Amino acid sequence: MKHTDIKDLFASSDKYSNGSVTVCGWVRTARESKSISFIELNDGTSLRNIQLVIDKENAKTVYALPSVGTALKITGNFVPSERNGYEIAVTDMEVLGECPADYPLQKKFHTLEYLRTIPHLRPRTRFFEAVFAVRNELSFAIHKYFHSHGYKYMHTPILTGSDCEGAGEMFRVTTQPWNANYKNEEEYFADDFFGAKAGLTVSGQLEGEIAAMGLGKIYTFGPTFRAEHSNTTRHAAEFWQIEPEVCFADLHDIIEIAEDFIKNIIKEVIDNCPEELAFFNERSGNGLLEKLRGVINSDFIKLKYTDAVEILKKSGKEFKYPVEWGCDLQTEHERYLTEEYFKKPVFVTDYPADIKAFYMKQNPDGKTVAATDLLVPGIGEIIGCSEREADLVKLKNAMAKRNMPLESYTAYLDTRKFGSVPHSGFGLGFERILMYITGVQNIRDTLLFPRTVGSL
Fold it and tell me: Which of 221, 222, 212, 225 lies closest to 167 in space, CA to CA?
């Protein structure tokens, strides 16, 4: 069906001015007077609607006013308008899809809570049109950054037999009937599709490390899954994650990479989504763009965990979760450091080994690991980052301490056995950075179909 995207009409208005154009889209609003009908049409390519004007007195054909949600094909003259910049004086209208009166999006504005009950219709609203436009641009910026810096894009398995972080939050994948009758778990899984217990991946990191050990530097960008009973605004059971792995890089190197990466992708979105970010900036109270530009133009703070704990203890604030050395920092602690104390992003480094994953490089003090979390204002932790333990003996000891079955990690351990090298990486939740850039407060509003506890 030959037509012009509305975005292209506005971008090249001089080219189309006073000429005949054909557009397609859905009716956002429709009203009429005795002699003129006005319709706002949107096709998903632009946040801006194109206004259609039907002169009923001079029209060869009298068209019935279409209801909100109706899909139309319109032909008309693209003419200058004092109020709208440009509009289309309609000469022909074809209804592509009728929309009845019970269409749920009759009003111009709906609450996000209401829209979560109809996720299949959310993309037709201005808010979600903007969210998914930024999501698209951010995805492209991520691939562009790594491609331009010589990384290879790896597709790590979604089906896996290993729980990367040993947290026991994997979704099990099986072909076995629910009432299978077996003597024990081992017998049950031996008769399953893979002949072993399988689940959906919580991270592509371990496979990513294996790939980097031959390819130098790689990144993964794909869906990950966690069966975590956490019904918060920041957690989803299915989300996307970016995980680079870099050989011949220590913790300081990966921190530099992470900072450059974050600044670069934020700048790309600012440059390429001006309308969408202006929309989110207005919704958030006009502080969003200032915050994002502040991130791009500031030097991130590097702060040891031990020093962070001291700052928090001396803050005079009453935290819900008391702070002591050895505790995991909570969101309230992270936000105090970034929003009140430093007022900029902070890399907290050298966490206690006992609260971090088995694969992180052990520091000479025997108590901490070469790990860092990037904390940002408004969100808290956004990146988890570490130098990986390259010493086979130390890695095995860390796994044994956590009662991890070494036989399940033979391939991973072989990377330390055969030509091990210093290497580092980080994980960034895609929806978390999308929330940060748009100011969206709930992760459910960054996903097309959010998967959360009790909601499929």
Answer: 225
CA distance 21 to 5: 10
Based on DSSP, count helices (H) and strands (E) in the chain, helices before strands: 14, 16
Count CA within 13 A, CB hemisphere, residue 164: 22
Contact of 446 with 435, CB cutoff 8 Å: yes
In whole angstroms, what is the distance from residue 275 CA to residue 268 CA? 14
Those residues whose C-beta lies under 8 Å from the C-beta of residue 266, and which sit 6 or more positions away, are: 292, 295, 296, 437
Q: Please tell me the distance from the alpha carbon of residue 378 to that of residue 291, in angstroms, as a whole number.
A: 10
| 147 Cβ contact partners less than 8 Å away, ≥ 6 residues apart | 153
How many Å apart are CA 369 and CA 228, to the nearest integer?
A: 25
CA gap 122, 352 in Å, rounded? 43
What's the maximum distance between 2 C-alpha atoms anywhere in the chain? 87
What are residue 10's phi and psi, to 5 degrees? Answer: -70, -35
CB 217 within 8 A of CB 245: yes
For 144, list phi and psi in degrees, rounded to 5. -60, -40
CB atoms within 10 A of CB 205: 27
Q: Please list, in sequence order, all residues whose beta carbon lies within 8 angstroms of the beta carbon of residue 22, skipping any fewer than 6 positions away.
A: 2, 3, 4, 73, 74, 75
Residue 181 has pLDDT above 90, yes or no: no
- CA gap 434, 77 in Å, rounded: 39
Q: In what order do the strands lie in the sheet with 159-160?
A: 159-160, 198-200, 172-173
C-alpha distances in angstroms, 168 versus 115, 193, 200? 33, 21, 12
Residue 290 host element (H or E): helix 288-297
Neighbouring CB atoms inside 10 A of 186's CB total: 10
Of 405, 398, 424, the C-alpha closest to 168 is 405
Q: List pLDDT tens digits, range 76-131.
A: 999 999 888 999 999 999 999 999 999 999 887 899 999 999 999 999 999 999 99
Q: Is the pLDDT of residue 179 over 80?
A: no
List, in order, residues 6 or more apart from 314 with CB less than 8 Å away. Answer: none
The amino acid at 308: A
- Angle, in degrees to the nearest 10, between helices 410-417 and 205-215: 30
